Amino acid sequence: MGHGGNVIAELTVDHHEVDELFIRIEAQPARDTRRRELVDELTVELVRHSVAEEQYLYPAVREHVDGGDALADKELEDHAEAERLLKDLEGRDADDDQFDTLVAKLKSEVTEHIRDEEARLFPLLAAACTPQELEELGDKVRKAKKTAPTRPHPSVPTTPPSNKILGPGVGLVDRARDLLTGRKH
Question: What does R_g of the chain's alpha carbons equal in angstroms?
Fold first, then answer.
């Protein structure tokens, strides 16, 4: 979290970190409790990343990219599906019969989303924005990740202004809950 650079560089580093977490999860033996811990770590990263994209990246795509509304709507649908999977995983131990199936579905969904953003959305945004606009978006994304929730909340709004108002409060509650339960973030 907090890598620096323009919005595309920032989010691409996040994508690589998510890919690495999936590799680390898959390297653990089936039903091992470390898989659960790594899925918790992955959840924190995915939720923070998604919230930052929803608050700043997708509104910028809507504003600057031709056809941006349709692109942003598609990305938000991807986020909603991933969030549903994260929510379903949240209450399951690594030895749960559905745990590995849900992780595999999540990996497939997230990997496809990442590849689509990097191959299609990022180049369109880079062509439509100035380097300064991309740098400013990077700063906003980094700040949003610092106060973002750490757990999935499928019912929380995903578009401004509601997500910018509610996100930090939900994030504060999540971090307090993480502290009380000993969950790392």
Answer: 16
pLDDT in tens, 150-169: 766 555 555 554 444 444 44
Band of residue 1 on the pLDDT scale cut at 50, 70, 90: very low
φ, ψ at 159 (rounded to 5°): -130, 150
Distance between CA atoms of residues 168 and 150, nearest Å: 10
DSSP character at residue 29: P
pLDDT of residue 169: 46
Whole-angstrom Cα distance, residue 49 to residue 31? 27
Task: Count Cβ atoms below 10 Å from residue 185 Cβ, excluding itself.
Answer: 16
Give 6's Cβ-side CA count (13 Å radius): 12
Residue 40: both structure tokens together? 């918790």
d(CA 53, CA 50): 5
Q: Are 81 and 169 in contact, with CB atoms under 8 Å apart?
A: no
The first and second tokens of residue 63, run together, are 């504003």
Token pair listed for 11: 């989010």
60/71 Cα distance (integer angstroms): 11
Q: How far is CA 138 from CA 1, 32, 99, 125, in A?
A: 12, 37, 34, 13
